[in-house]
Design goal:
Strand order of the largest sheet: 3-4-2-5
Number of helices: 12
CATH architecture of the largest domain: 3-Layer(aba) Sandwich
CATH class of the largest domain: Alpha Beta
Distance between the termini: 18 Å
CATH superfamily of the largest domain: Malonyl-Coenzyme A Acyl Carrier Protein, domain 2
Number of strands: 9
Length: 262
């Protein structure tokens, strides 16, 4: 699969993944495909991998759709590569950024964003008390000041070059929509809880439409995990680099069991 990825991408991403520097891994054309590959390969080689439901955070939704059989590995990788390129282009068109807001209720963060006469929106609902906002540089600056005044424990600008999951990603959304329309989607083996709706989807057309607007809509991770638990999930298995999602799941519900595919 890794050698196949080298052929599809047109460069040896495996050389960077296994022997490259941190700086090389941070290149736009490398980061997203590398995370996708790591996640999908782990799920593929796991013993008795039979998920009852899947979900992924932002980029991870593409990995989840390969893991449950909606997307073929090759098609998922091509979409991820096109997504990275489209996002980079949107960043260059609309210089913008993001910030992490800690210690405020989600509705307070959303109300403050709505009160600002600049592009600034709630982008990532990661867990209760941890929300990422996205927007223009001025919008984020104003929002961080207002969040601090409202009692946020921290309002921390992030070292990113774009306002992901905001209206400023519209050029990337348009580009990715065409790629999605030209990709084959199949019936999955289990529901996917999608970022846009935080609800389970098995209908291929619904999955495609939700995926098309993912780049300009918020990642409703808190709501997705809550919905999965409400639908009977007690154990979450993370397939990918690191344990970030396990930490978020436990902050959303302390009784949830979490583990990694090793």
């Amino acid at each position: 699969m890794l050698e196949q990825a080298n052929d599809i991408l047109g460069f040896r991403i495996t050389d960077i993944m296994f022997d490259g520097t941190a700086e090389e891994l941070k290149e736009t054309k490398v980061t997203q495909p590398a995370i996708f590959l790591h996640s999908v390969v782990l799920a593929t080689i796991a013993d008795d991998f039979k998920p009852d439901m899947v979900a992924g955070h932002s980029l991870g939704e593409f990995s989840a759709l390969v893991a449950n059989g909606v997307l073929a590995f090759e098609d998922g990788l091509k979409l991820v590569a096109q997504r990275a390129e489209a996002m980079q282009g949107a960043c260059e068109l609309n210089p913008s950024t993001m910030a992490a807001i800690l210690g405020l209720d989600d509705n307070v963060v959303e109300e403050i964003c709505a009160s600002i006469d600049e592009v600034v929106v709630a982008a990532n609902f990661n867990c209760p008390g941890q929300l990422v906002i996205s927007g223009s540089h001025k919008g984020i600056e104003i929002a961080c000041a207002k969040m601090t005044e409202a009692g946020a424990r921290r309002a921390l600008p992030l070292p990113v070059g774009g306002a992901f999951h905001s209206p400023l990603m519209e050029p990337a959304r348009v580009q990715l929509e065409t790629a999605i329309d030209n990709t084959t989607f199949s019936q999955g083996v289990c529901p996917v809880y999608q970022n846009v709706t935080a609800s389970p989807s098995t209908d291929v057309d619904v999955i495609k439409e939700n995926l098309k607007i993912q780049l300009t809509a918020p990642v409703r991770w808190t709501q997705s995990v809550q919905a999965m638990i409400a639908d009977g999930t007690t154990e979450f298995i993370e397939s990918g680099p690191g344990k970030v999602l396990q930490g978020l799941v436990r902050k959303i519900n302390r009784e949830a069991q979490t583990s990694s595919i090793l």
